Amino acid sequence: MILAEDSTLLREGLVRLLAEEGHEVLAAVGNAQLLLKAVAEDPPDVVIADVRMPPTHSDEGLRAALEIRERWPEVGVLVLSQYVEKRYATELLTGDSEGVGYLLKDRVVQVDEFLDALERVARGRAAFDPEVVRQLLGRTTHTDLLGRLSARERDVLAEMAQGHTNAAIAQRLHISQSGVEKHINAIFDKLELAGGEGYSRRVLAVLRYLGS
């Protein structure tokens, strides 16, 4: 993997953590230009990138992440952000969500959750911070349709949007897997979303809906 983070302390800490967990860090860089150069030279399985990097500390990391998704679609991208930046999250998450993640930096200190998200992205799945999903759910313009959902269906939708599998949702919400499947079918019916085969396309449809 390749890591892009302008904070030397955080960057070196992540390198040590990832190495201890058995991940190979091909490069650790401090700006978006160096990130793109490193990916071009040796495309990794996954990239970890901060949203805000030099020189302007605005959206250089996000722009690099979007470029990586366009030029090297096989490379997973896990974006880290200090805050929930809805515009950036929506721009990233309403594209092709295969191998895409968006986490708040606070989540990094919860090592198990961070590593789980990283591994999901590396395997071509989605990993979205629960707080990001909560705020996107809160800002959707389709409140009339969301109002059709039961409290449990909203819980399942939030877990699904984070990128969890049906089995993981069942475990996290303490319900059966068949119950999860019934809730998901009800969600798609109530939100008037066209069905599609494959987990990633299901998540993509939900996120496009929530981000609109």
For the sheet with most strands, the description reads: 6 strands, parallel
Strand coverage percent: 5-15%
Q: What's the average pLDDT?
A: 83
The CATH superfamily of the largest domain is Response regulator
Total E-strand runs: 6
Residue runs with pLDDT of under 50 for 5 or more positions: none
Kindly state the percentage of residues in helix: 55-70%
Please tell me the total number of domains: 2
Walk across the major sheet and give the strand order. Answer: 2-1-3-4-5-6
Structure annotation, total helices:
11
CATH overall fold name of the largest domain = Rossmann fold
Tell me what the CATH architecture of the largest domain is: 3-Layer(aba) Sandwich
What integer value in Å does the Rg equal? Answer: 17 Å
Structural class: alpha/beta
Series of H and E elements: EHEHEHEHEHEHHHHHH
What is the name of the CATH class of the largest domain?
Answer: Alpha Beta
Shape: globular
Query: What is the CA-CA span between the terminal residues?
Result: 32 Å
GO biological process, one term: regulation of DNA-templated transcription
Pfam families: GerE, Response_reg
Keywords: DNA-binding, Phosphoprotein, Transcription, Transcription regulation
InterPro entries: CheY-like_superfamily, NreC/VraR/RcsB-like_REC, Sig_transdc_resp-reg_receiver, Tscrpt_reg_LuxR_C, WalR-like
